[in-house]
Amino acid sequence: LAFNEVPQNKLILTALIEKAFSSAENLQGAAENTASPISYGEAKGLFQSWLDAHTFPAAVEVGGSDQKLHKVSGSDREYYMFQIRGMTRLHDVLVEPNTREMFIYDTGKPEPIDTWYQKFVVPQNKRK
Predict the structure, then answer these.
(1) pLDDT of 53 higher than 90
(2) Rounded to the nearest 10 degrees, how much is the dihedral formed by the CA atoms of 63, 65, 70, 72?
(3) Where are the domains of the chain?
(4) Largest Cα–Cα distance in the chain?
């Protein structure tokens, strides 16, 4: 008998095919969810969550924005712009609405926020 002529094998094969299709649909749905741009409020919440999860040498807070997307030099993308307030100076933060990536914009070119944090904030925290 061929593989697909044995009743148990038909059930197994059907279950595997069904599982493959449902997995593909779930992946496609997940990709569609992450592909849609986030709103200003979602970007602000994402940035606030990042601030809450990190230690700073002083109390910091989210600085305002005009809720519009901004183009900045050093990048061809548009970002929501916020500020980290409470440190020795203000730091501009960019949130990319499509990828949800966050950047510090201090040098004329967006720098990943985690790289900046490790380079500049962690050493200050060690001096506290």
Answers:
(1) yes
(2) -30
(3) 3-35, 40-127
(4) 78
DSSP string, 35-102: HSPPPHHHHHHHHHHHHHTS--SS--EEE---SSEEE-TT-SSEEEEEEEESSSS-EEEEE-TTT--E
| Single pTM value for the model | 0.70
User: What is the mean pLDDT of the segment spanning 95-118?
Assistant: 96
Residue carrying the six token digits 């203000």: 90
The set of long-range contacts for 110-113, using a CB threshold of 8 Å and a minimum separation of 24, is 110/72, 110/74, 110/75, 110/79, 113/50
8 Å CB contact between 56 and 125: yes
Question: What is the rounded CA–CA span in Å between residue 31 and residue 26?
Answer: 9
| Predicted pLDDT of residue 127 | 85
| Cβ atoms 120, 84 nearer than 8 A | no
